[in-house]
Amino acid sequence: MQPWQSPHNPARHVPTATLSINPHHSPSSANQNKEGSFPYSPIFIIIMANRISGAALFLSCLGFLLLIHSCSGQIDGQIADLGGSVRRHQRHPLRFRSECRLENLHVLEPSRRIEAEAGYTEIWDENEEALTCAGSAFTRHVIRRNGLFLPSYSNSAELMYVVQGRGLYGVTMPGCPETYQSDESQFRGRQGTSEREGVKRFFGDRHQKVREIREGDIVAQIPGTAFWIHNKGQSDLVLISIIYTSNEQNQLDQNIRKFFLAGNPQEGSQGGRRHRTRGSQQETKYGNVFQGFDDELLQETFDVESDLARKVKGEDDRRGHIVEVREELQIVHPMIEEGEGWEEREREREREREREMERGSSRRRGSSSQRQNGAEETLCTMRLRENIDNPERADYYNPRAGRITTLNSFSLPILSFLQLSAEKGVLYKDAVVAPSYYMNSHALIYVLRGNARVQIAGDNGQSVFDGKLQENQVLVVPQNFVVIKKAGSEGFEWVAFRTSDNAMKNNLAGRLSVIRGLPEDVLVNSYGISRDDARKLKYNREELTVFSPSSRSARGLRRDDAAN
C-alpha cells in the first residue's frame, strides 16, 4: 500500500471501456460470456464487415459505437457513485470510536479554572469517557465588566450560549470586506494618521461586522475564524460553550486547540500555558501564535518598528486571555433599540424573517428542477446568532408544565456547517419531560437554574444514570439512550447542545409517541396486559413532550408534606 493511501480508501482499479459491458445494453444476453465481457475481437468484426453490404456495415459500426458509449457512461457513473460513497464514509472521521463505555454515566463538573485579569474560564475534563465518546469538550467563560476576550480561533466548531449579561461579538471572515466604517470625526482625538510619501492623512476605523449578544443568544463559531468578545454591560458576561472536535472541518485530532492572536495566555491552550491532551498529562508552554516567529520577520511582514513587533508577540504580557479595557471600547456598530415597545418591534422583525424563510421555501418547492447549493446566505452576511429565550418562540408549551425551544439548521442555516443544534427548556415545579431519545445525536445538558431528577436507560435495559442534576453541572445523554427529567421544587431550566444540525427526538409517552402509534393488540401481547390497560397506556397522557404533575404525583407530595 502506498503511504498516501488510506486503509478506508484503498486504491481503486478503474476498468477501461473494453472490459465490461452492461448486459441490459446488449441485444442478447446469450452472446455474452460468463463475466459479461464482449466476446468478439476487432479482427472478427472486420472480417464480418467485409462480407456484408455497405448499409449493413454502417449500421453495425453505429451499433458498436453506441455500445461502447453506453459502457463508458456506465463506468463513469460507477466511478462517480464510488467517489460519493467514499466521501460519505469519511464524512465524520473522528466521530466513530471502537468502543464507548457508557454503562455508568455521572454528572460532570469543571475540572480546572484558568484565571485572567478580567475574568476566568472553566474547563470540563476532556478525558471524560462520555465527552470523548460524544467527540466534544465543554467550557464556561466569565468576562467581567469592561473585559475583552482576546482574539483567537480554534480547530473545531463551537456553539455558545449567553447565560447572562450583554456584550459585543466580533468575528473575522476570510475574504469578507470591512463593512463597518467611521470617519475621523466619530472618534475625536483618537483617529489614526498615515505619513507616506510626504502626505499626511487622517482616517477613521474600518472593520468587519460586529454583533450585539445578550442573554438567551446562541452564537455559532466557525472553525478557523478569529473572534473576540467584549463585555459592555454592568454585570458579568457569562457564556457556556460546546467545542465539537468531531466536526468534519477539524482535520487534526480531538484535542482542543486554541490559537490566540494576542496576549500571553498563562495557564493552557484554552487561555493558559498548560495544555493537557486527551489521554496525556503533558504540559506545554506557549503564548499567542506570533511568539513562534522572529522579531525581524514580523517587523518586515507588518512593515512596523521592532518595538511594535515585540509588543505583538506579547511575551511580557501577564494579563491572561481576558484583559481589562481601561477606556471605553470605541467600536463601530449599530445600537440595539431600547425603550418602550422595543420587544414588540423585535418580535415583529422575527416574524417577518420567518415569513421570508417560508416564502423562500415555497419558491424552492415550486422550482424543484433547479439545483440548490444549500447556502441560504453568503459567507460574509450569514446570521451567526439566534435568541432562544423568548417564550413566544417555544416549540412545545404547556401552561401547567413549561416549554421547550429548539434551534436547528432550518432556523439558523450556519448550524448545518457546524453539525450542531441546541434546545432551551424551562420546567415548572414537579413537571416532567416525556421519556425520549435522540435518534441521530448525542445531547450535552447544562443546567442554568434549579434542579431535576434525571434517569437514563441504556440499550440492555440497565439504568446508567439516576441522580440529581444541579446548576452549572453537565450531563451527556448518548444517542438512543432514553432519558426522563423531572423538575424539583425550584423548577428546572437547562440548555442542551446536540451533535447534529437537525437532531430528531422520539417520545415514548404522550401524544405523537411510539406507544401511542402502536396498535392495542401489539401492546396487549407485548406486555401481557388487558385491552383496557393497553388503552390507559396509550391515552392517559394527552399532553405533548412537557407533562404537568400527575394527580398521583400531587397526592404523593401532599402525603410527604403532611408527614413533615
From TrEMBL:
Protein name: Cupin type-1 domain-containing protein
Residue numbers spanned by region Disordered: 1-34, 263-284, 340-379
Molecular function via GO: nutrient reservoir activity
Alphabetized UniProt keyword annotations: Disulfide bond, Seed storage protein, Signal, Storage protein
Residue span, Cupin type-1 domain: 105-310, 386-535
Pfam family name, one: Cupin_1
PANTHER family in the record: LEGUMIN B, OS03G0336100 PROTEIN-RELATED
Family to which the UniProt record says this protein belongs: Belongs to the 11S seed storage protein (globulins) family.
Keyword Cytoplasm included in the entry's annotation: no
Compositionally biased intervals (Polar residues): 17-34
